[in-house]
């Protein structure tokens, strides 16, 4: 199945970070902001206080009834654009989403369980997630969905960016920080609009963004992270996506600009206790690994409140060519008590053939959070896989 992942990737021409690392001083600024603000729950919550989020914080720009669904499109200003305006392109500064509800639901009057669904790599717009996730969740379980557009995707794509090819490494980190703060806006708004209880969920990149956002919410919340793990460092350094990175360009920029080398030395020093015996053969790939761990490792964010960890599940693919779990912390060590389920799939085949399993797991995690949640049909809470050396 890993071979199928490799084959599928060869059919996709999209490259990653086609203009290199990004401004080294911006990289350092994002790093500091992650460490002091976004990665610390109490500090992060101060950036999006509940009292600042009102019903009119979100602008409803379109509403349409189709079949048994009610589609409501909304937008709001991304909080990150207020705090780091020089790092957020104008197109990224406005967050767009589509709310998918049952046709007969009285929006803002009756409560309904809701899932905030994050986009995977290359998933522009709302149509794919609406077809594969939102409509089935309504039809099978009467769970609504908020389909949040990724920064740098769809309506939020800068004009000089081609498809999903992020121009700079820094763009990925801005994407993550923006989504974390935008999730806080949406969760506060959901409480006002009676869209509760809530779950964050997604596949691959979407699953990891859901996990990052999950760390900072102080109240009841569920998580389903599919085909993602504790860090993205192995994704970009060892997995299938590593072949999409212009390593020669990154190497040239690294040696032409002393600022990159200084920041790399700083990262190495920060991680010296962890990698004290490590021999670095390739400083460029080592810098990429250190950066990805700094910005994407769940170890570097607040651990979710304990009561929410029991409402969280990771579904891992045993033959995943994109998400490699060796060499990064096990989720049992990062969030002790988190649920982990293994499925005998590769990355692509899991998306194609396990959608019903993901839908069931969304309902299951909501039911773990609130036993009496009103679902169209109650899923049976399944036993969780036991982690063993063979399946971990």
From TrEMBL:
It comes from the Eukaryota. This is Uncharacterized protein. It holds the Pfam family ABHD18. InterPro entries: AB_hydrolase_fold, ABHD18. It comes from Rotaria sordida.
